[in-house]
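#data-curation
PF: Archiving a pair of folding outputs for the training set. Convention for this channel: one message per protein, sequence first, structure tokens after, nothing in between. First:
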Amino acid sequence: MPVYDAIFFDVDDTLLSFSKSSRQAFAETFAALEIPLEESAYACFLEIDRRLWTRQKRGEITVRQVLDRRFGQLAERLGIELAGDMQAIFQEKLAQTHQTEPGVREILAYAGKIYPLYAASNGIYDMQVQRLKLAGLEPYFQDIFVSDALGAEKPQREFFEQCLRESGKRRKSTLWIGDSLEADIAGAAAVGLDTCWYNPQGLPAPDAPFPKYIVRKLDECRKLI
């Protein structure tokens, strides 16, 4: 078993449940704007959001473009007018949500006694830090790296290189844990990091990028460290 100097954790859908948090923020956004919320609206939002993030992971658009486009596309699909800046309101509401993935506190408390821990995410720095603070997770981390502050996005090589430079950690002794095969596993592996795919749905492993480890529960990470 390798001996690591540090462990990096992705944020959304690894530490914090984005699906639960975004559903709550989405409903609160519509309520704040006094727009009737149809049951199908959130499913439509998720479809658009996932499609845009897929394009971002392929390098076709930026994180900022994902955030700027998704509500415009949603309004067009639903046949409604954009009321104010829905993205800004959604972002504000999302920053107040902090629902965690199962077993997060337990694995961070355990791993944090052994290694320095870091959080790394695409998105907006202030929002991600706020969510980790509200969830009570920020104290576990030596530092938090977010794409808009780094000037690079996962899965770009520069994102991971920046994380290593700013943390002072060596790629040969760093473990990267995340839920996205494209953004986390492929991106981290490309710069020589060991990777652990958090796969709670039990999806079949791809031929490439093939993660060094696969866990369905975060508690299973104990056996890696």
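PF: Second:
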Amino acid sequence: MSVEKRVIKKYPNRRLYDTATSSYITLGDVKQLVLDQVDIQVVDAKTQADITRSVLLQIILDEENGTMPMFSYEVLTQFIRFYGQAMQGMMGPFLERNLQVFSQLQQKMQEQTRALYGENAMLNPNIWSDLMKFQGPNMQNMMSNYMEQSTNLFLDMQNRMQEQTRQLFSGFGFNPYAAPGSQEKGPDKKDEPPKS
């Protein structure tokens, strides 16, 4: 059963209108809806086009311009370089899955904090800060190990796909790895001198 999304209309004057409350809201209010786990859809009031992604990206841009940006220069340039690449279609699901794992890890830590310190522990910044000082390095270690394993699995999958492609096309006398017009056998075959 699909959950009905909360529709927000964006007017040409750049104002956002929440159809659920029949009132104008700010980008900060949209951010709060996302933080409150409300499923939203932002539509252009004139064209009815779905512009949710661009509004969410605007919120991220505003956050990145703040005092504690999440993405480094290296991460942002890597994102840009993935556009147009053959692996672009796999990048989104890869990031999505890793964010889900990170979110599950965060939820588990919050549950453990509540079990140790009670229901109001999340409201006490000192307790949360102390826990992060103690658990921060362990959590980073765990995430690094997970990312390394994910990378190794991904590279292994990529190698298997290349091998299967090579085997598939070898039966047809076609080499997908050879340069157009060449008679090479593949990237792993060495050039052999012509036989006299």
